Amino acid sequence: xxxxxxxxxxxGPGGPEVLRLRDVPVPVPGEGQVxxxxxxxxxxxxxxxxxRGVGHFGSFPRVPGIEAVGTVEAAPGGEYEPGAxxxxxxxxxxxxxxxxxxxYTLVPTSSVVPFTSTLDWAVLGxxxxxxxxxxxxxxxxxDTRPGDTVxxxxxxxxxxxxxxxxxxxxxxxxxxxxxxxxxxxxxRGIGADHVVIDTGTIAGQVREISxxxxxxxxxxxxxxxxxxxxxxxxxxxxxxxxGMLADAWTIPDFYPxxxxxxxxxxxxxxxxxxxxxxxxxxxxxxxxxxxxxTVPIAxxxxxxxxxxxxxxxxxxxxxxxxxxxxx
Length: 327
Known about the structure:
alpha/beta, 2 domains, 15 strands, 27% helix, NAD(P)-bd_dom_sf, ADH-like_N, oxidoreductase activity, acting on NAD(P)H
């Protein structure tokens, strides 16, 4: 008899209402695959883009979700023991094959990162993709060093909040932005040294804080604010284009000499599971358990509330990571 599970299925692009909870067969793993009993998963902006049918993201029908945490149900290749705690992320999850919005997910072994933790599953569900993007943006993208001044453009997003936490752990001074003055104290509470209210043009304000410009900047808003972020950055400083919260994907009629100031370095970051070393994930979770690091969770939902969760993500009214638990 075929086992079934509850999963969120999207048959075609549209609003949050296209996310439909159904009973579907539990996938059967083969060599090089891991079947995971999903306990929780975080929501990501790219899943909103996929649901809308914009960008270059996969095919329908599909179970969305680029990340999940849970326990190993089966790994025919013997890579993981049943019951082992794991995170799964990227590698085509929720785009070219079914993802984490389900009670079980089947992923390639290359998409799995192991960990051990007694933290609540909702907390664990918030971490993998958020940490991978923040860690990679600061290390691979910006090459942050102790003593640097780093601008986090889009500080109240889940990745922005994680960037603040990680940058402070590295020993950097952090300038974070928000469009909402009411969120400034929250940013300071999580570790930001300075908060700038984002009007769209903030380079002058940033240079009042750091007159020569920032050493590094993580751009999470999009291409519409990127030129201004570049102007806030010092000669030989680095800007990592790591997010598109404003859904601004391209720069029309891009002329590099008009956009990139002399000597400022522009790069980008988008990672995979292999860009989140198990050591980095484990150390971060251990720090959270010890109270020396924070996971910025905005709200936790049940699987039945996935439509409302996507409405909340689309509205952008909540600061931090939105997480769904499966039971």
